[in-house]
Amino acid sequence: MHFKRLAASTLLMFSSASQVHANELFPVLGADKTFGVQVKIQNFTAADAGQIKAAGFAFVRFGAWTDNLDNAAYQKQVSDAFAAARSAGLPVLLTIRATEALTTTGDASELAAAGESLARSVLDLEQTYRTQLVAIEIWNEPDLEKYWPTGHFETTFVPFMSAMCRSLGPTAPTTPLVGFGFAKAPSAGSASTVALNRIVSEYPKCLSAISYHPYGLSGAQISAAQAFIQQNFHLPGVISEWGVSALSSNGGDAGQASKVSTFISDVKKLNIPLTSVYEWKNSDSGGNDREKNFGLLTADGRPKPVETAVRTLLNAK
User: Fold this and answer.
1) Which of 158, 192, 176, 183 is nearest to 274 (CA)?
2) For the whole model, what pTM was predicted?
3) Cα-Cα-Cα-Cα dihedral sign, residues 239, 241, 246, 250
């Protein structure tokens, strides 16, 4: 029992340290306004932004894919999404990644060139949208093969990201950079921890926080992840994506509302400085029923029970 009390106090100490550090890093967010919600740029509107603001969210998260940035129609989608967010005074957590393979051979020089190219995209987007950004998140779930199209994460990720950090060094953006949106929280011996140890030690000023997606983790497990990140990388942990699908196996709409409410309450107690909920609306383009039903609203914009629960929690004084 004494050990459990000691462990809990240690975790609280680390979460508090993260909060103090992170408040300096995300100045556009107040200490009690740290929750955002993910949207898709192809259907995000000013009306959505107004509803999101009214629900108590402090920012929106959406992505920009570097492969498409030369396409005028895609550039307009990104610009329109920023305009919609601006209409409601919502800053943006912008996640940047590529959807095509970074190299065909895994050659170190190709990886370095790709990392330098990503750095240029980061700087260009930051220059364009700087006044609207909470932070720029580098990549999304690279520890999953689907989102690391180059493959062989253990051997290709560090050379690529090291080149990006090195390239950013002389002209580092003023907007905080967080990374790398890991699908699983870094843990002892995990591939993400091995990679982070190398990148953070060689480029200690590259990242302002470590971002991850604690799907399926309890409040206690998230607290432990936060402490691990702080201890090992001397940076705060932030949650750039987490959600629950309204599947019958999760209790349907009512179960989703209950689980999301518990998550928000737990995260508030841990003082995590930035958390993005997945997602604002159900997605008809999802590949299966699970992926289609994470929304706080239906695909056509009708509030689900989870939206009412979130609104109550986030607007509580």
Assistant:
1) 176
2) 0.91
3) negative
Query: Residues 253-265: pLDDT tens digits?
Result: 999 999 999 999 9
Residue 306 lies in a domain: no
Residue 276, domain member (yes or no):
yes
In a domain, 197, yes or no: yes
Cis ω on the peptide bond leading into residue 59 (within 30° of 0)?
no
Token look-up 């690529």 returns: 160
Domain that holds residue 80: 2-280
- How far, in Å, are 52, 224, 239, 257 from residue 254 at the CA level? 20, 28, 24, 5
Rounded Cα distance, 179 and 201, in Å? 14
Residue 7 pLDDT exceeds 60? no
CATH number, residue 197: 3.20.20.80
Give how many domains the chain has, as a whole number.
Answer: 1
HEC-encoded secondary structure of the chain: CHHHHHHHHHHHHHHHHHHHHHHHHCCCCCCCCCEEEECCCCCCCHHHHHHHHHCCCCEEEEEEEHHHCCCHHHHHHHHHHHHHHHHCCCCEEEEEECCCCCCCCCCHHHHHHHHHHHHHHHHHHHHHHHHHEEEEEECCCCCCHHHCCCCCHHHHHHHHHHHHHHHHHHHCCCCCEEEEEECCCCCCCCHHHHHHHHHHHHCCCCCCEEEECCCCCCHHHHHHHHHHHHHHHCCCEEEEEECCCCCHHHCHHHHHHHHHHHHHHHHHHHCCCCEEECCCECCCCCCCHHHHCCCCECCCCCECHHHHHHHHHHCCC
Query: What is the rounded average pLDDT for all residues in the chain?
Result: 91
The predicted-structure confidence for 194-251, as pLDDT tens digits, reads as follows 999 999 999 999 999 999 999 999 999 999 999 999 999 999 999 999 999 999 999 9
Q: Is residue 115 included in any domain, yes or no?
A: yes
- For residue 267, what are its two tokens? 């995260």
